[in-house]
Amino acid sequence: MLKEKVALITGGAQGIGQEIACKLAEEGVRIAIIDLKKSSRTEKQIEKTGGNVISFIADVSDENAVKGCVEEITRKWDKIDILVNNAGIYPLEYFTEISIDLVKRVFDVNVIGTFICSQLVAKLFISKAIEGTIINIASAAGVIPDKYHVHYSASKAAVISLTKGMAMELLGQKIRVNAIVPGAIMTKGVKNPGLFENSKDIPHDFLEFQRKKNSPLIPTAMGEPADIANMAIFLASEKARYITGSIMVVDGGRLLL
Ligand SMILES: NC(=O)c1ccc[n+]([C@@H]2O[C@H](COP(=O)([O-])OP(=O)(O)OC[C@H]3O[C@@H](n4cnc5c(N)ncnc54)[C@H](O)[C@@H]3O)[C@@H](O)[C@H]2O)c1
Hints:
With 257 residues, the chain is an alpha/beta fold. Helix content is 43%, strand content 14%. α4 links the parallel β4 and β5. It has a single domain (6-250), classed as NAD(P)-binding Rossmann-like Domain (Rossmann fold), CATH 3.40.50.720. It is built from 8 helices and 7 strands, in the order βαβαβαβαβαβαααβ. The protein is globular. Residues 10-11, 13-17, 34-37, 59-61, 86-90, 109, 113, 137, 139, 182, 184-185, 187-190 line the site of nicotinamide-adenine-dinucleotide.
């Protein structure tokens, strides 16, 4: 069903984006990745299973750079069918210590980056009459804010709003737009999120707060990238043909606590 489709995944060099790229490739989807760094590990993993992959080093918040990537993908494969806006940053900081530069950077990557990629790809969908789909990786923090993540939580709330707004405007063109709201997922980024640059110690209440995110549903307590990738595959597929503007929570029950 997904075979022969083309997917653009941002932030696919590691973590959730890497898993989504590899799982889509297993379904026969051709994969293009945009990341700030080289996506060598993702490429190797996809090529090992006979998949097709190209990757670009670019910043999702740089409109010209993303435009260049989208043009190159369409030159190579003539189309894009699936966009996954996954690239995101989540540096921790006390609200009173967040610099304006930091809050701007978080919004640039998480919100403006999602906006830029979505707008460019939506234009392509419309010009080629592609009934494509956009999947935004939001966060449970965008529903109930996380401690020391005032800036990040607000940016992910904006991603949820963007999702619904785009879904509404693009409905007539049969372009589906949905968001996934992950809870705590064990990735490289979470192991080292850029902790409290202005303070040497991690506050004790932060560790307690983190533990509360652990889910009794699974032995690993925190979710794995595959939990999010499985939802992305479903949303990208024909099985989700009646779903748009939806916010799919995959959080092990965390938002219930
Ligand atoms: N891991 C979690 O617990 C969790 C929970 C909720 C939401 N999320 C969201 O899921 C997404 C992926 O998270 P992750 O834990 O896999 O992160 P990660 O840090 O492990 O990987 C993120 C990838 O995005 C890339 N990236 C960062 N800024 C970029 C930019 N400006 N342009 C292009 N690429 C860029 C990084 O280089 C990296 O490869 C993020 O949007 C994050 O906010 C994660």
